[in-house]
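Handout for the seminar on molecular recognition.
Each group receives one record of this type.
Step one: identify the two inputs.
Step two: read the structure output and locate the region that could contact nicotinamide-adenine-dinucleotide.
Step three: write two sentences on what you found, then compare them with the reference statements printed after the record.
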Amino acid sequence: MAQTHTVPAETLRGFVAGIFAAAGCAEDEAARIGRYLLSANLAGHDSHGVIRTPRYILWLQEGKVLPGQHLSMVSDGPVHATVDGNFGFGQTIGPLAVDLGIAKARAAGLSVIALRRSGHLGRIGDWAERAAEAGLVSLHFVNVEGGELVAPFGGVDRRFSTNPVCIGAPGDGTRPMLLLDFATSLVAEGKVLVASNGGKPVPPGSLVRPDGVFTDDPAALYGPLIPSGPRDAAGGDGALVAFGLHKGSGLAFMCEILAGVLSGGGTSGPVPGGKRSRISNGMLSIYLDPTHFGAQDFVARTYAYADYVKASRPVAGGAGVLVPGETEARTRAERLANGVPLQPETWAAICATARELGVAVPG
Ligand code: NAD
């Protein structure tokens, strides 16, 4: 396997922002996209980081994601709102939707925001972190309209998108924030992409072939693999598998209902009249202000409980118990200090996009 290319975090953020500015985004939007893509890499979720740059630029050029968009209000009440992201960049629409939820929850103690038709929202943990920084607990259920990739438990045909679920709790800034954030597929699509390029293989049984046999072969998702060729999930006739048997599959199903049906954005399928021209995220978010619930000592009690959980004796040969958010905090500290490692294919693809737009590649 070729060596990874390591880039200092700030250099990478500026480079990616420069690419989006050169592609026509306003400076502030380009800076936000650079910031949030880097944030996913810093958290260790490379599948949702700067690797997305070439694909986002292509979507921008094809008009599938639109720069400079704002939220449109679909319905508005004291504790809820349904908002339309108008296919704007998720890195612009996401924070606007979260800030609306924060403002309503601060006034009423809780709020529910249903977001439809947002561009790709990337790492959902960023939105829970934004709410936590404002002192709020938040829960997020997400789907991808037009992004069918995952077979339901017991089936082989694609019926769900990778539908992430995220729950975050405010911290005190001195310890890692408690943050659960995962796709409801056994592995995220980006991890199959990495495996298809000769990277870390996905665990056996992460995919299912159309004949019902479980596999770890990325070709089930992408079709026959051409070395370094493009990867299109429409090319395969297999599917990703939901995590956690019927329980994870059920959670993925409910994400479609909450983020797709309730928001009005739509489920991941079926597609009326054939293939959808673009994908968009729906997200149902719930914001809770612990102080309105009488939990003035919420943060201290949360950390005390986390300590108790972590004090569980490790399994034989194990390194001990982690709590949600801990791995991300460790990776962030390490990558901020030592740079962000990127697969050679990932770095080459970002640099090729930069050169096409006349952006200098950092030395
Ligand atoms: P994952 O399988 O790596 O799970 C991550 C979660 O598990 C984190 O909360 C982490 O803190 C926790 N965790 C990891 N190891 C742990 C341990 N030993 N003990 C306790 N907790 C532990 O995540 P994933 O499914 O690969 O998802 C990756 C990212 O992809 C997420 O940020 C998600 O939001 C994002 N995503 C986005 C979309 C979208 O449409 N925008 C779709 C799918 C996934």
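Reference statements: The longest helix spans residues 90-108. The mean pLDDT is 94.
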